[in-house]
Amino acid sequence: MVRNMFRTGFLVRASHTLLTWVVTLILFLHDTDLRRYEEQGELLLPVLFFLVVVLSVLFYFAVSLMDPGFVLTDTVESVVQDLQTSDEEKDLMIPQTSTHRLRRCGFCLLQQPMRAKHCQTCKRCIRRFDHHCPWIENCVGERNHRWSGISASDSWDLWFRVNGFLLAALGVVGVFSVVVVVLLGCHLYLVSINCTTWEFMARHRISYLKNCGHEENPFDRGVLCNLWDFFCICRTVMWEQMYHKQSQNEA
């Protein structure tokens, strides 16, 4: 892995890592919530944010430096053993009665298994080649196209021990995904009616809204206009003029 770090993608990885830490440093040094929490001695959120950044960088390097499925030898059985696949996977990958003749790569001179391709950037043949990703500066192939999933076991106890971390991670991701989807739906609804969260929650206490009808919003210009103004127009709006204009029209 250390040797792979200094391949042609070293500058890409270094740039991504440097950019990540520069942005993180700015967020901690600039006048942000993270800086204010830190100054007030409330370190829980800053520490969690820092740990998420560290984990993101580690996962980035894990994906960037892992073996995507390099073809290492002409002997197909040796490649399978190198990939540490099960006997069942071997049978699926290498039919005993296969009549397909493996072709030899014109660059690295190795026999290419079916669906393999030579990557001009990595200068290696990749098993089940998908594409070369410039963001991780590594190929996407048989070994890293998907992460290892839930493994089968002989007993439920062993199954939970083997897959416990993955199940916990899926649970956390699922909970946060539901929260994000709900928040997205709520805010899209508020944007579509041109209403802020504060106005929606405290309507009865806001002087310019408490005298309006329950379903009445003086700033609502229709769904399409509201969405267009929110996503496509960046300007300061004189809400007082819009409010008085709407009041006059109703009068």
Automatic annotation (TrEMBL):
<keyword id="KW-0012">Acyltransferase</keyword>
<dbReference type="InterPro" id="IPR039859">
    <property type="entry name" value="PFA4/ZDH16/20/ERF2-like"/>
</dbReference>
<dbReference type="GO" id="GO:0006612">
    <property type="term" value="P:protein targeting to membrane"/>
</dbReference>
<comment type="similarity">
    <text>Belongs to the DHHC palmitoyltransferase family.</text>
</comment>
<keyword id="KW-0564">Palmitate</keyword>
<keyword id="KW-1133">Transmembrane helix</keyword>
<keyword id="KW-0808">Transferase</keyword>
<dbReference type="InterPro" id="IPR001594">
    <property type="entry name" value="Palmitoyltrfase_DHHC"/>
</dbReference>
<keyword id="KW-0812">Transmembrane</keyword>
<feature type="domain" description="Palmitoyltransferase DHHC">
    <location>
        <begin position="100"/>
        <end position="147"/>
    </location>
</feature>
<protein>
    <recommendedName>
        <fullName>Palmitoyltransferase</fullName>
        <ecNumber>2.3.1.225</ecNumber>
    </recommendedName>
</protein>
<dbReference type="GO" id="GO:0005783">
    <property type="term" value="C:endoplasmic reticulum"/>
</dbReference>
<dbReference type="GO" id="GO:0005794">
    <property type="term" value="C:Golgi apparatus"/>
</dbReference>
<dbReference type="Pfam" id="PF01529">
    <property type="entry name" value="DHHC"/>
</dbReference>
<dbReference type="GO" id="GO:0019706">
    <property type="term" value="F:protein-cysteine S-palmitoyltransferase activity"/>
</dbReference>
<feature type="transmembrane region" description="Helical">
    <location>
        <begin position="165"/>
        <end position="191"/>
    </location>
</feature>
<keyword id="KW-0472">Membrane</keyword>
<keyword id="KW-0449">Lipoprotein</keyword>
<feature type="transmembrane region" description="Helical">
    <location>
        <begin position="12"/>
        <end position="31"/>
    </location>
</feature>
<feature type="transmembrane region" description="Helical">
    <location>
        <begin position="43"/>
        <end position="63"/>
    </location>
</feature>
